[in-house]
UniProtKB/TrEMBL annotation:
Protein's UniProt keywords contain Kinase: yes
Membrane-spanning ranges: none
Family as reported in the entry's similarity comment: Belongs to the glycerate kinase type-1 family.
Protein name (database record): Glycerate kinase
Gene Ontology biological process: organic acid phosphorylation
Length: 382
């Protein structure tokens, strides 16, 4: 009997893109069940890999390469995606991401900015975008989105009326901001995509949680936060800012990508759960209709996977469609009781680390073991 299987994984970060993961699982599945209808739908949660996932899943999507200024000034060729409905997709990891740096240290932590992200958004806006989806994640900076806003036409000035340096270091000299020169926002708005709910400030804020990943020493964290605080204080006085600036800093997701979520909110953007927005962009719900089994996956499947990640969304949609749900992950970090509960609920879970015999082998040979997992999962439903 022919089955319809939809394969909708996130990327296995550092080893395979979502498209590569989906293709490998499909190859393995078809070895065991060659007559089945297998549909690949690469997914993402708004972080690294978002543009690639959407470009690979939406018919008629057009990839556009745009040169921008990288996180510390070196030129970068960023990949943007234009969709047939006039939506453009821009990804911070492509323009201002930490992977674009040779390494991180105190200097890069304070110098890095989001100016390249702003240049990419501006390009989309000036080339007819009706809406821009902005994937936030893997950022190198803690500038509160000030670099992005600069590229969009804002002017951040010191006490002498000169423009401040880019990065968090420049925020400490900020005295005034002029938003009157901002480019026109696309008619259907800007949507920030993120899988985090961190606010801008505090123990769960942008500096405290994400600063150390970007080269900040413990003593640097309060300095980074002071720069962000100065940004909010000055923006609060700007008549063109959107809404109550201090309230925006407390919004879930405002701390995403070094506070870039806040910067976007300050000019009227909305924040959306990344996986939900990507699912909508690729038409995932329609693709799941009539499916017998839906397979998702990610590099590490653990308790955090239920918090706005791709697997939690795919499972919810599978339940709504009455389809079986399975997971293939690089590693499974669930407690035995959690895994047993999922098994009792009919959820099949395969770990590449367990299949390969070690985590290192699974990482070194990810695509090969994904094929093995796909074939094993197909055999289980035969």
């Amino acid at each position: 009997m022919q089955r319809r299987t939809v394969i909708a994984p996130d990327s296995f970060k550092g080893t395979a893109s979502a498209a590569e993961v989906a293709a490998a699982i499909r190859r393995g599945w078809l070895r065991a069940r060659p007559d089945d209808d297998c549909v690949e739908v690469p997914m993402a949660d708004g972080g690294e890999g978002t543009t690639a996932a959407i470009a690979g899943s939406v018919p008629g999507a057009r990839v556009v390469i745009v040169p921008v200024e990288g996180p510390v000034g070196a030129p970068v060729d960023a990949e943007l995606v234009e969709l047939p409905d006039g939506t453009w997709v821009v990804e911070l990891a492509e323009t201002s991401g930490i992977a674009l740096l040779a390494g991180v240290d105190h200097d890069s932590c304070f110098r890095a900015s989001t100016i390249g992200l702003g240049q990419a958004i501006r390009y989309a806006a000036e080339h007819g975008a009706r809406r821009v989806l902005v994937g936030l994640g893997s950022s190198a900076s803690t500038d509160g989105g000030a670099g992005m806003l600069t590229a969009l036409g804002a002017r951040f000035l010191d006490a002498h009326g000169a423009e401040i340096p880019l990065g968090n270091s420049g925020l400490h000299a900020l005295e005034s901001v002029d938003l009157s020169g901002l480019v026109r926002i696309p008619p259907d708005g800007l949507v920030a995509l993120t899988d985090v709910v961190n606010p801008l400030f505090g123990e769960l804020g942008a500096a405290a949680v994400f600063g150390p990943q970007k080269g900040a020493a413990p003593e640097d964290v309060p300095v980074l936060e002071a720069g962000l605080a100065r940004l909010t204080q000055v923006l609060e006085r700007a008549p063109e800012a959107s809404g109550d600036v201090l309230a925006l800093a407390a919004e879930p997701g405002s701390g995403a990508a070094g506070g870039t979520g806040f910067g976007l909110l300050a000019i009227g953007a909305e924040i959306s759960a990344g996986a939900v927005a990507v699912a909508e962009a690729v038409g995932l719900r329609d693709l799941l209709r009539g499916a017998d089994l839906i397979i998702t996956g990610e590099g590490s499947f653990d308790a955090q996977s239920a918090a706005g990640k791709v697997p939690s969304l795919v499972r919810k949609l599978a339940q709504e469609e009455g389809a079986r749900f399975s997971v293939i992950a690089g590693r499974v970090g669930l407690e035995a009781e959690e895994r047993q509960a999922l098994s009792a609920a009919g959820v099949s879970i395969l770990s590449l680390s367990e299949l390969a015999g070690s985590g290192q082998r699974a990482m070194d040979e990810t695509l090969e073991w994904l094929e093995v997992a796909g074939e094993r999962m197909a055999a289980e439903v035969a």
